[in-house]
Amino acid sequence: MKASYQRSTLLRVAYSIIAVIVLLNVVIYATNLKWLRKDFIPTNKGLYRQFSTEFSKENSPTTKTRILSSGSSFNSSHDVIEKRFEERLVNVVTMCERRGIDYKQNWEKLKNSGRITGNFVASYDHRAMICLVLKAGSQTWNNIFWRIRSPDQAKKYGFYEKAETSQRQAFYDLSLDKKMELLKDDDAVRIMSVRHPLARMISGWGNKFNKRYFYYLWFKQYPGMLRYPNKYSKWRGERDGYFMEFVDFAEYVADYGTVSLENLDQHFKPILSHCDPCKFPFNFITRLETFYTDARWITENKLNVSANVISPVNVINKSKDPALLIKDYFSQLKPDVIERILSIYKVDMETFGYTFNTTTLTAGGWEKETSLT
Ligand SMILES: *[C@@H]1O[C@H](CO)[C@@H](O)[C@H](O)[C@H]1NC(C)=O
Ligand SMILES: *[C@@H]1O[C@H](CO)[C@@H](O)[C@H](O)[C@H]1NC(C)=O
Ligand SMILES: *[C@@H]1O[C@H](CO)[C@@H](O)[C@H](O)[C@H]1NC(C)=O
Ligand SMILES: *[C@@H]1O[C@H](CO)[C@@H](O)[C@H](O)[C@H]1NC(C)=O
């Protein structure tokens, strides 16, 4: 009697444990699904919190000059920066011509149809729009637009995920007439942001394969990747924060990207597949390497807003020279892998004025921050 009583108690305990395990698994599975639905964009709450505090800090007078200290020298380099914007555009359209693309015709067609596709946000009141390129300052630009377009909401909530979806929706909801106005107006500001394509690739890898962000789910979307971790790399303790070493990832990109760009995730597709100046009449191209100079010039001179709308969050750590970063990572790769990766980003590099010397592994095409820092 006593023995069977003990047995049934044991059974009950065992069932409870199993029930708890099943429940936990359901919860974990549901959370995974939530991540999947969000297109793998992590909810980096810490970042957004930091952002909200930065926002209120920046708006207090004492820290007004914190981001860009040399206000007076800016004025003197005004023309230099304007000229540089022009040179970038000249290079862009020269490259369109060289590729046999009638960019003028494309622009006219678009101006008369207003049918804009792509990753845009806009502030109609500021007569400005931007095409966002992932891993090339898109978050910072998106945030600038959020602050100028919805200052009250930005102040209240800081920068958070909703900013992006609500801005995209607002652009989608903008009438065709207003879109055409923004396209035709010579004074309207039409921006796209770029970055050295190889630094962009390294940055994308560093971000997406970082174990902190749970990107193992990528392997579900790109099952071919599963064959690459530790395929070409040796175990290196110091990089033990990533799901895949750069060497292996580079081999994956070289193998899959040369077959079709469609094989690559948005973060690694060439810049031109996000925003194409041969099709769209951009009038400002900003570079991540000179982000403050470029963004400040545009906000103050074109958007007529204070440069305080530029957040320091997510802007690259200046002490990390992008040329050194690229050399560090690309020197790990086999020459044929480098060649194939370059073939993927060749048109990007030429269009936006970046270079890479395969003999010296030196990246180039840099411009200065122009007496702003
Ligand atoms: C800034 O530029 C404007 C126009 O070029 C000029 O009138 C003004 O004196 C300049 N201010 C400073 C502080 O250099
Ligand atoms: C720029 O903004 C200021 C104040 O915010 C305003 O007084 C001025 O008229 C604006 N200038 C232009 C050209 O819109
Ligand atoms: C920038 O990078 C350097 C070298 O990696 C590091 O020492 C420094 O703390 C970093 N600064 C910031 C603000 O992250
Ligand atoms: C790469 O750099 C080497 C050494 O500076 C130079 O001799 C060579 O011409 C460069 N190659 C290209 C394509 O610029």
TrEMBL record:
The chain crosses the membrane at residues 12-30. Its main location: Golgi. Its EC number is 2.8.2.-. It holds the Pfam family Sulfotransfer_2. PANTHER family: CARBOHYDRATE SULFOTRANSFERASE (PTHR12137:SF54). Belongs to the sulfotransferase 2 family. This is Carbohydrate sulfotransferase. It comes from Clavelina lepadiformis. The lineage of its organism: Eukaryota, Metazoa, Chordata, Tunicata, Ascidiacea.
